[in-house]
Amino acid sequence: MVANPLNWLMGFFSLDIGIDLGTANTLVNVRGKGIVINEPSWVVVNKRTHETIAVGAAAKEMVGRTPVNFVAIRPLRDGVISEFEITKAMLEYFIGKVHQQTIVPMPRPRVAIGIPSGATQVEKHAVYDAAMAAGAREVYLVEEPRAAALGAGLPVNDVKGSMIVDIGGGTTEMAVLSMGEVVVSRSLRVAGDEMDEDIIQYLRKKYNLLIGERMAEQIKISIGSAYPLQTELTAVARGRNLITGLPGSIEISSIEIREAMSNSVQIIVDTIRDALDEVPPEVVSDLLDNGLCLAGGGSQILGLVPRLRDDLNLRVWIADDPMTCVARGTGIILENVEFFEKFIVDLDQIHS
Fold first, then answer.
1. What is the pLDDT of residue 6?
2. Mean per-residue pLDDT of the chain
3. C-alpha distances in angstroms, 198 versus 57, 220, 253?
4. Cα dist. 350→107, 108, 332, 346 in Å?
5. According to the CATH classification, is domain 192-261 in 3.90.640.10?
6. What does the domain layout of the chain look like in residue ranges?
7. Residue 214: strand, helix, or coil
């Protein structure tokens, strides 16, 4: 029985959309099409009129270059919404962009969104409300490590245990899963953003050079490492000399950046070790066979695999296309919502 014929009709023409609403990047997976959007989670707003000027890649290009009346904002911090209205505008933009080629003038899609497993009820409620306000017909919230495990192709419904560690921009999510349920999980608000800040502070203290977030991210991606490299690398950091106030640049090595990032990397390693300490012995035995799967942009930090392998005494491997695992996982859930019902956050708890 269809409760609302108009709602059903709009749903018939709309697309099912899986979203990895990340602190650093937002990825959108459309059922039957795969990943169709992968853009930075940035929005530029006119401070006077509150009008949205740019979203995504176009907005990130403006970071550090905006006029006085404009401000560039990342509406998510530590994986959760910090700016509700701006997040709503960003979701509206991405949902609208997906539907540009459809015949529905006002799409009402079903949307599945990955959220940090450590998100509070208030934070979950904010994501749900923002998606509904942005035009979703139905919203399903999925904890990111579960979605990442599905997207990585882990046998999450098997009796044998498997482990996922998803290192994103705002959070590091980790979970051990068996029989479709979480055995042990951790949600850590130390991830790529924290490493960027580590690099900024290191260069400021050691070289009196102030660099921006984008420069720090570029350095992290190009020469950041978690383990000594066979051939150490160098990069040029550009910013403002804090002593002269003038533009300046220095050449830095991967050894220095490894030192800068070492505290954040160590926290991630220690948290994984702490989670493993709670895993039942039989499941630990499974992990010796199955290993630990890495996902998220942070999984691609140079030397992270051998660092974790040596520190944890486990086989460590990176998922195929690790940055898209959460988005692909939400898409898999939308293909069979009933089958994956236990992967979906109970909305009654959100509204209670």
1. 47
2. 90
3. 24, 10, 15
4. 25, 21, 23, 7
5. yes
6. 5-38+82-147+326-345, 159-190+266-319, 192-261
7. helix
CATH number of the structural domain 5-38+82-147+326-345:
3.30.420.40
Question: How remote is the C-alpha of 97 from its chain's centroid?
Answer: 20
User: Per-residue DSSP letters for 284-346?
Assistant: HHHHHHH-EEEESGGGGSBTHHHHHHHHHTS-EEEPSSGGGHHHHHHHHHHHTTTTTGGGB--
pLDDT tens sequence across 78-87: 888 889 999 9
Q: Please give the C-alpha separations between residue 14 and each of 101, 103, 104, in angstroms, as whole numbers.
A: 11, 9, 7
> HSE (CB half, 13 Å, CA atoms) of 112?
29
Q: Residue 265's Cα: distance from chain center in Å?
A: 17
pLDDT number for residue 3: 45
284 by Cβ neighbours in 10 Å (0-12 / 13-18 / 19+) ranks as middle
Instruction: Tell me the mean pLDDT in the region 216-237.
Output: 96
Q: One fold for both 5-38+82-147+326-345 and 159-190+266-319?
A: yes
| Strand 25-30, strand 17-21: pairing | antiparallel
Provide CB contacts within 8 A for 117, sequence distance 6+. Answer: 143, 144, 145, 146, 173, 175, 182, 185, 186, 187
- Residue type at 118 in one-letter notation: G
The pLDDT of residue 31: 84
- Amino acid identity at 32: G
User: Which two three-digit tokens encode residue 194?
Assistant: 């924290």
CATH number 3.30.420.40 is the correct assignment for the domain at 159-190+266-319: yes
Cα 33 to Cα 37, 98, 123, 138: the distances in Å are: 11, 11, 30, 20
